[in-house]
Q: What sequence folds into this?
């Protein structure tokens, strides 16, 4: 009953090429920018303008961490 394919990967869609860029909230907040590995577009993260997106990312990341710790306990 272990469905690993339903794992959520935190990240956002590239506004230029539409590809998914995996990232973490920590990375966004510390580096302040993001680079798309497909079209090499550099995205500057405006923490105020992106507050909604950042909150959504934070939720995904928190959920992922919860899953990780749960799976450790379940062995
Ligand atoms: Zn791109």
A:
């Amino acid at each position: 009953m272990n469905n690993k394919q339903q794992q959520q990967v935190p990240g956002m869609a590239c506004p230029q090429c539409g590809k998914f860029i995996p990232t973490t909230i920590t990375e966004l907040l510390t580096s302040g920018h993001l680079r798309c590995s497909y079209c090499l577009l550099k995205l500057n993260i405006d923490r105020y303008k992106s507050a909604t997106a950042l909150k959504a990312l934070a939720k995904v990341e928190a959920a992922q961490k919860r899953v990780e710790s749960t799976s450790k306990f379940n062995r």
Remarks:
- Residues 27 and 34 are 8 Å apart (CA to CA).
- Helices lie at 25-31, 51-74.
